[in-house]
C-alpha cells in the first residue's frame, strides 16, 4: 500500500478512534458495564408557615387561623407558628380555634410576641392548646376571662360559664402537659404572669427573642399529633408568612365596635333620606349596604337590643322635633336616648369590645344637628305658600282695569286677566284674588 493510501486510511479512522475513547459504548463496550450516574439532587428545604394575630379573637380571626392551619397541613409543612398578641375575645371563636389546633395533623406553635405582646383572656386558651408554646421577653399571659356573646350575666349563669371554662383550661393543659393548676386559676382568679414566671411554672416551653431563635429552640422537639408523634426539623427551615388577605382584613375592620356603630348610623341616615326623597336612589343603596355590613359586624359582638331600640327612639325624636314645637325638649330627649343607647349597644366589660366615647359624642351631636336642621328645612319648605299653578294665584293682589261685577278685567303679574266679583268694584281699585275658575279670576276689594 502506498504512503498516500495509508495516510488517507489513518485520517479516516481518526474520528472513530477519538469518539471511541470518549464514549466506550461507540467502541463496542458491553452494555452491562457500569456508567457513572448523575449526582443526586439536594432534598428541598423544610417549610414553616407563620401567621400573625394582633387583634381581638373574633369569628374573622378564627376563620383566618383555621384556614391557615389547613393550608399548612395540605402543604405538608414542618409546622405552623401563630405569633400572638391579643387582649382576648369571644368564647365561641376561641373554642373554634382550640378545636382546630387540638385536631390538627401539623404541629402548631404559639409564639406570644414580639416584646410587649400579651396573651390575655381567650389568648390563654390558644397558647395552652399549642403543641409548643413560647413567649418573647417582656411579654405576659393570663386573666383568662373570655367575653361571651351574652355580655353581662347573672351570678348563676356566670358561675356555670366560669366552671365550664376552668374545666376546659385544665383539660387542655393536661393534654399538652402544661401546668393545669395555673390554667384553672387564670380562669377563676384572673391571674397573670410574665414570660419568666410562665417558663418556671411550665405554662410555656421556651422564651425566644425572635422567630429564627424559636426555630432553633424547637428543632428536634417531639410532639403528639392526631396522626402520631412527630419530631420537628425546623433549624434553617424556610419561613413563609400567610398574610391576612383583603377579605379577612376588611371583615376584621368592620367587626370593630366603633366601625360597626358608625356603619349602623350611616345606614339609618341613608334609608331616612331615601324615604324622605323617593327616587334619590343613592342614599337608599348606600344606607342598605351600610346596614347590612353593620348587622354582620354586630352579629359577632355581644349586642344589647335595648340599646338598639334607644338609638331608634333617639332618631324618631329628632324627626319629631322638626314637626312639633317642643322648644327643644324632643331634640334633647333624642340626644339623651341616642347617647344612652350607644353606650348600652355593646354590652361588655372589655374595653376593646365597647364603643368609644370619642365616637359616640360626635355621632350623637351631628345626628341631632343633621336631623333637626334638615327635617326642619323640609317642613318649612312644605309649609311655604305655593308660587306656581292655580294655587299660586290665590292671594295675589292687582288693579282693576275696568269696573267689575259680573265681568271685568284686572292687571296682575304683568298680565291682563278676566275677572268677576260678588260686589261692585270700580276701575283703579286694588283687588285680591280669591279663586281661579278656568281662566277667570274671582276677586274682591283689597282691605
Strand percentage lies at 15-25%
Helix percentage: 40-55%
The spatial strand order of the largest sheet comes to 8-5-3-2-1-11
**Unreliable parts:** 1-44
CA-based shape = elongated
Overall strand count: 16
The H-level CATH homologous superfamily of the largest domain, spelled out, is 2-enoyl-CoA Hydratase, Chain A, domain 1
CATH class of the largest domain: Alpha Beta
Write the layout of secondary structure elements.
Blueprint: H1 3-22, E1 47-53, H2 59-74, E2 79-84, H3 91-102, E3 108-112, E4 118-120, H4 122-128, E5 132-135, E6 140-142, H5 155-175, H6 180-188, E7 192-194, H7 195-200, E8 206-207, H8 211-218, E9 222-225, E10 228-231, E11 238-241, H9 246-254, H10 257-276, H11 282-299, H12 305-323, H13 329-345, H14 357-383, H15 389-393, E12 397-400, E13 409-412, E14 415-420, E15 430-437, E16 440-445
Parallel strand pairs: 1-2, 1-11, 2-3, 3-5, 4-6, 5-8, 14-16
Antiparallel strand pairs: 6-7, 9-10, 12-13, 12-15, 13-14, 15-16
Molecular structure report:
The strands form 4 sheets. Strands 8-5-3-2-1-11 form a 6-stranded parallel β-sheet, with helices on both faces. A 5-stranded mixed β-barrel has the order 12-13-14-16-15. A 3-stranded mixed β-sheet has the order 4-6-7. It is 48% helix and 16% strand. A hairpin with a 2-residue loop joins strand 15 and strand 16 (440-445). Residues 1-44 have low confidence and may be disordered. It folds into 3 domains: 47-247, 2-enoyl-CoA Hydratase, Chain A, domain 1 (Alpha-Beta Complex), CATH 3.90.226.10; 256-383, no CATH class; 389-445, Nucleic acid-binding proteins (OB fold (Dihydrolipoamide Acetyltransferase, E2P)). It is α/β, with parallel strands linked by helices and 447 residues long. The protein has 15 helices and 16 strands.
Amino acid at each position: 500500500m502506498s504512503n498516500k493510501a495509508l495516510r488517507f486510511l489513518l485520517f479516516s479512522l481518526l474520528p472513530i478512534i477519538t469518539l471511541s475513547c470518549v464514549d466506550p459504548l461507540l467502541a463496542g463496550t458491553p452494555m452491562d458495564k457500569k456508567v457513572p450516574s448523575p449526582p443526586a439532587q439536594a432534598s428541598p428545604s423544610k417549610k414553616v408557615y407563620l401567621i400573625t394575630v394582633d387583634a381581638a379573637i373574633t369569628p374573622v380571626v378564627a376563620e383566618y387561623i383555621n384556614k391557615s392551619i389547613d393550608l399548612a397541613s395540605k402543604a405538608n409543612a414542618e409546622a405552623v407558628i401563630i405569633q400572638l398578641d391579643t387582649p382576648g375575645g369571644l368564647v365561641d371563636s376561641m373554642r373554634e380555634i382550640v378545636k382546630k389546633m387540638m385536631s390538627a395533623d401539623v404541629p402548631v406553635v404559639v409564639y406570644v410576641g414580639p416584646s410587649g405582646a400579651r396573651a390575655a383572656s381567650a389568648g390563654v386558651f390558644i397558647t395552652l392548646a399549642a403543641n409548643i408554646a413560647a413567649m418573647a421577653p417582656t411579654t405576659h399571659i393570663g386573666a383568662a376571662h373570655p367575653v361571651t356573646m351574652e355580655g353581662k350575666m347573672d351570678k348563676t349563669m356566670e358561675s356555670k360559664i366560669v366552671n365550664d371554662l376552668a374545666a376546659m383550661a385544665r383539660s387542655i393543659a393536661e393534654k399538652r402537659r402544661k401546668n393545669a393548676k395555673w390554667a384553672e386559676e387564670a380562669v377563676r382568679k384572673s391571674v397573670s404572669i410574665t414570660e419568666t414566671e410562665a417558663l418556671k411554672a411550665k405554662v410555656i416551653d421556651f422564651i425566644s427573642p425572635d422567630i429564627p431563635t424559636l426555630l432553633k429552640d424547637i428543632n428536634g422537639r417531639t410532639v403528639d399529633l392526631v396522626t402520631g408523634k412527630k419530631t420537628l426539623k425546623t433549624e434553617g427551615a424556610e419561613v413563609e408568612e400567610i398574610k391576612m388577605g383583603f377579605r379577612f382584613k376588611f371583615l376584621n375592620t368592620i367587626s370593630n365596635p366603633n366601625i360597626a356603630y358608625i356603619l349602623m348610623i350611616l345606614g339609618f341616615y341613608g334609608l331616612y333620606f331615601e324615604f324622605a326623597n323617593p327616587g334619590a336612589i343613592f342614599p337608599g343603596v348606600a344606607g342598605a349596604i351600610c346596614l347590612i355590613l353593620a348587622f354582620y359586624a354586630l352579629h359577632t359582638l355581644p349586642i344589647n337590643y335595648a340599646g338598639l331600640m334607644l338609638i331608634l327612639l333617639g332618631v324618631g325624636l329628632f324627626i319629631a322635633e322638626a314637626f312639633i314645637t317642643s322648644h327643644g325638649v324632643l331634640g334633647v330627649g333624642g340626644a339623651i336616648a341616642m347617647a344612652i343607647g350607644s353606650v348600652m349597644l355593646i354590652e361588655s366589660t372589655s374595653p376593646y369590645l365597647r364603643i368609644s366615647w370619642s365616637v359616640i359624642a360626635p355621632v350623637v351631636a351631628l345626628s341631632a344637628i343633621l336631623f333637626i336642621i334638615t327635617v326642619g328645612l323640609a317642613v318649612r319648605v312644605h309649609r311655604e305658600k305655593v308660587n306656581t299653578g292655580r294655587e299660586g294665584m290665590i292671594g295675589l293682589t292687582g288693579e282693576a282695569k275696568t269696573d267689575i261685577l259680573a265681568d271685568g278685567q284686572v292687571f296682575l303679574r304683568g298680565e291682563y286677566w278676566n275677572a268677576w266679583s260678588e260686589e261692585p268694584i270700580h276701575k283703579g281699585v286694588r283687588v285680591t284674588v280669591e279663586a281661579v275658575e278656568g281662566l277667570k279670576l274671582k276677586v274682591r276689594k283689597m282691605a
